[in-house]
Amino acid sequence: MPISVPGSERRALAPHRTRTRGFTLLELLIVVALIAVASAMVSLALRDPQATRLEREAQRLAVLLDTARSQSRALGVPVQWRPVTDARERVNAQGQRVDFRFDGLPAQTELPHRWLSPPEDGAIQVELPARQPQLVLGPEPMIPPQRLVLRLGDQQLVLQTDGLGPFIVMTPSP
Q1: What average pLDDT does range 47-61 have in this prediction?
Q2: Strand locations in 51-145, DSSP E?
């Protein structure tokens, strides 16, 4: 007589299930997410270095202009910003390169006066309207609307204010 093992009869009577091959929805979602992250990293790595440099310089200049504007109001002195175009003004008394000036601020409130990157990497060019050779930053709480264009190679950005708000960086409309 055959020996009966408990449970073996049930296994013999149950239909044999075969495991289907394929991917679950969760596995597919994980792969798609990984591809999205990898492609985002590649697109950031392939960004134009001139565009990045110009954006960094424009953001920094906007902060410097707003800082000078605040100091002008706090001290009650008129302050103007202007790019240095004359070769004789390109070097200050300490022998440092000068790319732009904040005229009117006292010496003890010295603000940066040059671009972050050296001119050997390409010179940043500033365009002001012909009727406005410099930006007026104060001391009045409301200044006239002002705008300047920064160029580096074929890239350009616009810094502007409506006279009441801060300077903002914008991409020019074609």
Answers
A1: 89
A2: 79-83, 100-103, 125-127, 135-138
Kindly state the tokens that stand for 10: 């049930």
Would you give the end-to-end CA distance of the chain in angstroms?
Answer: 95
pLDDT tens string 122-144: 789 999 998 888 999 999 989 99
Q: Is residue 135 part of a domain?
A: yes
Compute the distance between CA of residue 116 and CA of residue 93 in angstroms, rounded to an integer. 20
The Cα 7–Cα 120 span in angstroms is: 83
From CA 38, how far away is CA 108, in angstroms rounded? 49
CATH number at residue 128: 3.55.40.10
- Kindly report the pTM of this predicted structure: 0.72
Query: Does residue 93 form part of some domain?
Result: yes
The count of domains in the chain is 1
